[in-house]
Request: fold
Amino acid sequence: MSRTFLGTPAFPEAARSALANTQLRRNLAHATSTIRAKRAAVVGEVAEWERLRRAGAALKDRTLRHLDTYLQQLEESLTRAGATVHWARDAAEANRIVVDVARRHGTDEVVKVKSMVTAEIGLNDALAAAGITAWETDLAELIVQLGDDLPSHILVPAIHRNRSEVREIFLREMGRYGRPAPADLSDVPAELAAAARAHLREKFLRSRVAVSGANFAVAETGTLAVVESEGNGRMCLTLPEVLISVVGIEKLVPTWADLEVFLQLLPRSSTGERMNPYTSLWTGVTPGDGPQEVHVVLLDNGRTQVLADEVGRQALRCIRCSACLNVCPVYERTGGHSYGSVYPGPIGAILTPMLRGVGADAQVDSLPYASSLCGACFEVCPVRIDIPEVLVHLRAEVVDSHRGHPSAQNAAMAAAAWTLGDARRTSVAERVACAVGKLLRRTRRRAPGGRATLGALPGPAARWADARDVPIPAPESFRAWWARTDGGRTEQQ
Amino acid sequence: MAVGLLVTCLNDVLYPETGKAVVTLLRRLGVEVTFPAGQTCCGQPMVNTGYLDEAVPLVRRHVEAFAGCEAIVVPSGSCAGSVRHQHRIVARRSGDPGLVRAVEESPPVYELSEYLVDVLGVVDVGAYFPHRVTYHPTCHSLRMLGVGDRPLALLRAVRGLTLCELPAAQECCGFGGTFAVKNPDTSVAMGADKARHVRESGAEVLVAGDNSCLTHIGGLLSRQRAGVRVMHIAEVLAATETPAALADPAAEVAR
Reply:
C-alpha cells in the first residue's frame, strides 16, 4: 500500500484519461450534484451567510497577520495543559517526530483519524518504512487504503467509487488486514458501513497510539478540534494511550469564541449539514481520561512561503470544506486524481503550486491552468478565497518563470501583444483576416443563422476544431464598416 | 459627450453584426454612440494566460482610446470584467504611476445589459423577435459582474419571444479563453453537457451576452448539426418588425 501521486502527468493529459472513464464520470456527477444541492439548501437557511463568510475570512486574515504571536501562545497553552509541542519545518521532520514517538512506545501499528495534512506529508509511507502500519479509520479513507487507491476528494476521498465497487473491495481485501467482510455482503450502504465498523472496531480496541490532524487549534486555550461524521475520530481521540496530532500552522484561531463562526461555516459548506455529528475538542492531557500522552506537531511545509505571497496567502484561510470541489465543473468531470496531489480541485490548483513552488515541474505548472475561471468556487467558499484571482496570479508566475525560453506560446503572445498594442497594426491584421474570411465564405458551410464555419482542421488547430466548428472572419471588420459608413450613417439600405 | 462602444477584438473581426446591433439599439434609445478608433483588445487573453507584461500596451491603448467618453459600453461580460477588475492589476505591474492613475480615471465600463437597465432604466427596448429562445448566463457576467436577471428581464420584454428554461443554466460552458485549447478535452466535455442542455431546452436560438462562449457552444452545436443557432443578446434586442429583422434564419445575415 504505497501508491503515490508521483509520476502523474500534467493536468491536460491526466484529465484526458479520466474523462474517458465513464464510471468515474457517472459516480462524480452523481455525488457532487447531491452534495451541491444539500449545501445550497442549508446555506440558504442562514439569513446572514455573507456576513458569516466575511467574519470567517477576517478572523483568518487577522490570525495570519499575527501568526508568530499566536503560534507562541498556542505552544504555551498546550505545554501548560500537559501536551508536548514539536515544530516541524517540512514533511521529513514531521514524519521523523511521529515515527520516533511511535517507536518509543514499541508499537507496530497506529490508528488514524482522517487528516489531509498527514496525507500531504506522506506519513503512512514513512511509518511503513519504520515497520509501523497505519490503519485509516474513516470509511472513505479505509476504502482508499484497502483498494490500494489514492484519495480523490478532500472530504470524501473515495468519491470516485460507487457502492458496488466498495463492496468488491471489502470482500476482496478486508480479510488480508483483519476481520473479513461477511461473505454475503451486499452493496446496501448500511451493510457496507456495518462491515467497516466490525473491521475497524478491533483496531480501535487494540491500538495504543493514534494519529490525527486538527480542524482548528485554539491559541488561547491550547484546545484542538476535530470535526467528523462517523465517530471513528472520537474513538481514535479517546481510546489509545498516546495521541499524536499533526497540525498545519494555518489551523490556528485566536480564541475559543472564534470557533462559533467556523463551526457554522464548515459543516454547511462541506457535508451540507447544519451541524456535523461529532465535534471532538481536547486540551492537552486530562488525568485519568483519554490519552495520557499527547503530542502536537506544528507543521510549516511550505506554509510560510505561501504567507509571503501577498495575493496567494488567502489560500491559508482554507478550512478544507471541499465546497469548491463539489461545485467545480472541471473537477466534476476530471476527478481528483488528475490534479496529482492530495489537494485536488480548485483549492488544490492554487495550494499545490504554492506549497511545492511554481516551476517545480510541468505537472505543478499545469495546475493553475486547470480552470475555466468560471468563479463558482469563489462564490461558495466559506472563507471567501478568491480562487480565480489566485489562479491568474499563479499563471503569471508560471509564465514569468519561463520567460526567455523560446516557446510557441511565448511567441504567439508576443506577436498578439505587438499587433494589438497599436490600432493601425490591428487594422492591417484585420484586413488580412477579413480577406481570408471572404475567400473561405465562398466555399464553406454556414452554421444555422448564417455564421460561416470551418469543420475539422489538422495540426495545432485540431485542439479547437477536433470537436468544434471554427468561426470564419467576417468579410468586413466592424472597424472598417464604421470608417466606411461613418458609423452606419451613410450606409445604403 | 457620448458613450464609447468597446466592440471587443473578437466581435470586431468575427462578429461585426453584434457591434452594429449595439449601435442600432442604443441609437433607437436616443443614445449618442462613438467608436473610438484607437481601441484594440482589452488584454484579457494575455492576463488570463499569465502574460501580464504583454497586456500593458493593450491597457495603455484602452485608456487612451476611451479618455473623454462619458461611459464605455461593451457587449461582453467577460471584457467588461477585464476592464473593471484586471486593468488596475496590469497597471500596477507596469510600475508606471501615470498608467495607474489613467486606469483609475478611466470612464465607467458597463456590460450592455447593465447599461440598458441601470443607466438608461429601460427593460422594454422595443424589440420584436418571434422565436423560441434560451439564455445562457455567461460566468463572468453572472459571477464577476453580477448582472443577475437583467438580461432575462430584457428578453422577457421582447415581443413575440418565447423564453425556454435552460437546465443547469449557471454551469460554465467550458470555453474559458485559452483554457479551450490548453485543456481541450475538459473544455469539450463541459461544452458537450451545455450543448445537451441547450437541446433539451427546446429552443431554436441560444442567446448569451458573450460571443466568446457562443463561439464554443455554437461550434459544438454546429458540428452536431443540432438545429440550434446562437445569437448575441444585442442582436435580439436590436431586432424589430421591419423586414430586415425577419430575414431567413438559414441565410447569411444581411451586410
User: Anything to note?
Assistant: Residues 265 and 382 of chain A are 6 Å apart (CA to CA). Chain A has a mean pLDDT of 95.
